């Protein structure tokens, strides 16, 4: 009897719960899973892994990458000058010399579309960043301090929002007097930025109203932390999720607004290449020469669509500050918490067979004896599907 107990004394096992007799039982070997140490994935790594599994997101990312390369190296990629006219080659059909044909002035349409991508992307990104840098501080100040400051800022934002986005952009461009070149592009950028400032201000204000009531903000105030430091260090990082969502969606909207203004004759003026202006100038020849309107008309919606492709089966979910941001249209929605709508049975210990968790999950492995002490709680990463 003494010999049987000596190995157990040299090899003690930590048992939680159960009676003294159950504690003396041996666990069934090779039944419980062995816990494996694995490094947990960062949110960026999780996003990249899910992005690779989404066909629509990969296609959209590839189109955006191609557009960025074309816009950056437009001078090298364009076969001819986008503003040089040649009256001897007007309305040329697509050929090796003119892959997309020429317009009524003999200008190469491929060169104009390549240089037009630079204008569209520059206006889309610049207008959103300008609206971001102005609207976010206004929203943070209004939501944090409240009172008269909040009322004054929000009434100004409501006044801007009272006008439809296109109507206000048209009014601003009439006031600015559209011109050609860099100055004309800056005017269009400023008009679109003014239209989008209230969107960021109201969005950030709503987030700050809930964040400033948190315990860690009260603790910062109690220890005497200054308000600017609280806003920059603690409030702003917790508002980034909805800001990122709105920014990515706003770039596509700004590109469409710029093309609309140019089509109406209120955007960038010729000879500066613009997709909207080329579509406006060539639409009257669409019956006899459809290609000169087809190509700029196709490039205009394809750029916003590539930025926000529609979600399909197996679309990627990119976590942004605790939220899921899918790789398609509306996939960066911060209102949907991570894991919601994933098909998990509520209250079940194991996941649905078609689901694999993106984080390490605690699982139970009962032994064949059926005793409670023979169950081990282990953690191991589940392989991605």
Features:
54% helix, mainly alpha, two-stranded antiparallel ribbon, 5% strand, 385 residues
What does this 3D model show about the protein?
There is one protein chain. This protein is mostly helical and 385 residues long. It has 2 domains: 1-40 and 360-385, no CATH class; 44-326, MetI-like fold (Orthogonal Bundle). Helices cover 54% and strands 5% of the residues. The protein has 14 helices and 4 strands. It has helices at residues 2-10, 20-23, 43-52, 55-72, 74-77, 109-145, 147-161, 165-176, 181-211, 215-222, 227-235, 240-263, 275-282, 291-307; strands at 317-320, 323-326, 361-365, 376-380. The strands form 2 sheets. The chain has a two-stranded antiparallel ribbon with strand order 1-2. It has a two-stranded antiparallel ribbon with strand order 3-4.
Briefly characterize the structure:
About 55% of the residues lie in helices and about 5% in strands. The protein is mostly helical and about 375 residues long.
